[in-house]
Design a protein that fits this description.
The chain is an alpha/beta fold. The chain has 9 helices and 15 strands. The chain has a single domain, classed as TIM Barrel (Alpha-Beta Barrel). It starts with a strand and ends in a 7-residue tail after the last helix.
């Protein structure tokens, strides 16, 4: 399916040795650095360096290698559980300029906002303006976000959140600022659609079809799942006795929505955890995402 991405987050810290190039060779068409860092108007990498390619020269070469091996996108993500997104009301134009300059210098093709924080209306407006300024400076860059899901008392429709009931993405989503939404369909056990919860494999297709009710049609929806039962607190993976056919069942879920025009692919947290499990996630799901003809289910 054209425009469908096989997204995988790459941990930038610790003993990680998986490069962007290696991730693409393994089947991830869109590797994402987790995490970059925004501190006021300054842009950098969480911890100071991307562990697998720690110098600026190595990182630039690595990103170029990923592209030469077929990467569709190579993204720079900010946020995460430790929150590396801290603009602190810096001048939005200056920050956008610094982001675009940083992405261009290293060869990133876009930025991902994986924001897991509380917010107010001003935060929503700021993010919307920041995305708009980035696009003004370089329309070729893609902008993505990785919201979580909630439902609470909002009836049958799922809604996007950055934390609890807060949704820092709300205005930007409504204004079509994001090319893709990498929806984290895990870590919140209560949302339920057509009898499917985040602990059920059927939630992949159920959530996708439900989100189409509220997400603008121009925005591609990517349902994200953890690589295995160690990658998230609540997910489709049982903490023990994982079914032997779990990855086949996951792949069939993506296959069932693959033909939809709003389908944007699949996301996995993380490439590192997938590597520890012999790349079982991407080996099963990658061929579905890369196929030009939807598989039969």
């Amino acid at each position: 399916m054209k425009n469908a991405l096989m997204v995988g987050y790459l941990q930038s810290w610790g003993s990680s040795n998986i490069t962007f190039t290696e991730a693409v060779k393994r089947g991830y068409t869109t590797p994402v650095m987790a995490f970059g860092e925004i501190n006021r108007s300054e842009v950098g990498i969480y911890g100071g360096a991307f562990a697998p390619s720690p110098t600026p020269e190595e990182l630039k070469k690595d990103i170029q290698g990923a592209k030469e091996n077929g990467a569709e996108q190579v993204l720079f993500s900010v946020g995460g559980g430790n929150n590396t997104y801290c603009p602190k009301n810096a001048d939005v134009v200056t920050l956008a300029q610094n982001i675009v300059a940083y992405l261009s210098e290293y060869g990133f093709t876009g930025i991902d906002f994986d924001l897991e924080l509380s917010c107010d209306k001003n935060d929503q407006v700021y993010l919307d303006q920041l995305c708009a300024e980035i696009k003004k400076l370089d329309e070729s860059l893609i902008i993505t976000a990785a919201p979580q899901l909630n439902q609470a008392d909002h009836g049958s429709n799922l809604f996007l959140v950055s934390q609890g009931n807060d949704n820092i993405f709300e205005i930007a989503v409504a204004n079509n600022r994001f090319d893709y939404l990498f929806v984290q369909a895990y870590n919140n056990g209560w949302p339920e659609v057509n009898g499917c919860k985040e602990t059920d494999v059927c939630f992949i297709s159920a959530a996708f079809n439900n989100l189409k009710n509220t997400i603008p049609s121009a925005t591609k929806i990517v349902i994200g799942e953890p690589a295995n039962n160690k990658a998230a607190g609540t997910s489709i993976f049982p903490k023990s006795d994982v079914p032997s056919d779990i990855y086949e069942r996951i792949a069939k879920q993506y296959s069932s929505i693959h033909a939809d025009e709003q389908f944007g692919g699949a996301m996995c947290w993380s490439v590192n955890l997938d590597e520890s499990n012999d790349y079982s996630f991407v080996n099963a799901v990658g061929p579905v995402i890369d196929s030009s003809v939807p598989s039969l289910v």
